[in-house]
């Protein structure tokens, strides 16, 4: 579900992907339900592609949202997004104890809380990211098709003796050989 939820630079809130067009996406705001175009020139990021830095690696946003959902029992988060930085860091430390305090800024924590509240108010509680199995199957099919398509034959030069006016001359001729 999170793959269809987008954030668009320059536009407040979150958006649900409705349709795709030639050079834009049609998105619907989760705040007011209005539909609008999101062009290729705008920075568009799916929530399913976002991760939060930890000391060892990264944790996907959907995992953090699940933890927040369990902590708040499915209700909106009571932490104000205008809280001081120490309060926000303490809150994030409760959710993800080993988050990287140097690379996760208070503004990122504010966005997390804001996005969580928008999702809950919109009735979206399924924080699962679609399985990559479909993508893996498609990749396998592409590999099989690529294996079936043969490479173009390479050109090779072959020396050929040609008789011109009773004189033998050697020339090179381009021929194709199968690979």
The parts where pLDDT drops under 50 for at least 5 residues are 133-137, 144-154
Strand content: 25-35%
Radius of gyration computed on alpha carbons: 28 Å
Specify the CATH class of the domain at 51-127.
Mainly Alpha
- First-last Cα distance: 46 Å
Q: What's the helix-strand series?
A: EEEEEEEHHHHEE
Largest sheet: 5 strands, antiparallel
**Strand order within the widest beta sheet:** 4-3-2-1-5
CATH fold name of the domain at 51-127, please?
A: Arc Repressor Mutant, subunit A
Helix content: 25-40%
Number of strands: 9
Cα shape: globular
Structural class: alpha+beta
CATH architecture of the domain at 51-127: Orthogonal Bundle
What is the average per-residue confidence, as pLDDT, rounded to a whole number? 79
What's the helix count?
4
Describe the protein.
The chain has a domain at 51-127: Arc Repressor Mutant, subunit A (Orthogonal Bundle), CATH 1.10.10. Helix content is 30%, strand content 29%. It is built from 4 helices and 9 strands. Strands 4-3-2-1-5 form a 5-stranded antiparallel sheet, with no helix packed on it. The chain has a two-stranded antiparallel ribbon with strand order 6-7. Strands 8-9 form a two-stranded antiparallel ribbon. The longest helix is centred in the middle third of the chain and has 16 residues, at 106-121. It starts with a strand and ends with a strand.
């Amino acid at each position: 579900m999170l793959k269809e939820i987008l954030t668009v630079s320059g536009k407040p809130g979150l958006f649900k992907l409705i349709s795709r067009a030639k050079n834009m996406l049609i998105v619907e705001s989760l705040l007011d339900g209005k539909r609008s175009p999101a062009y290729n020139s705008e920075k568009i990021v799916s929530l399913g592609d976002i991760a939060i830095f930890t000391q060892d690696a990264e944790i996907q946003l959907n995992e953090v949202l699940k933890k927040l959902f369990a902590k708040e029992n499915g209700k909106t988060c009571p932490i104000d997004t205008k809280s001081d930085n120490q309060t926000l860091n303490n809150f994030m430390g409760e959710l993800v104890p080993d988050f990287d305090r140097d690379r996760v800024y208070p503004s990122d924590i504010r966005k997390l809380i804001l996005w969580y509240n928008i999702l809950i108010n919109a009735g979206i509680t399924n924080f699962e990211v679609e399985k990559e199995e479909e993508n893996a199957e498609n990749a396998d099919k592409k590999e099989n098709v690529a294996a079936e398509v043969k490479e173009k034959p390479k050109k090779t030069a072959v020396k050929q003796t040609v008789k011109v006016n009773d004189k033998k001359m050697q020339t090179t001729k381009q021929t194709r050989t199968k690979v």
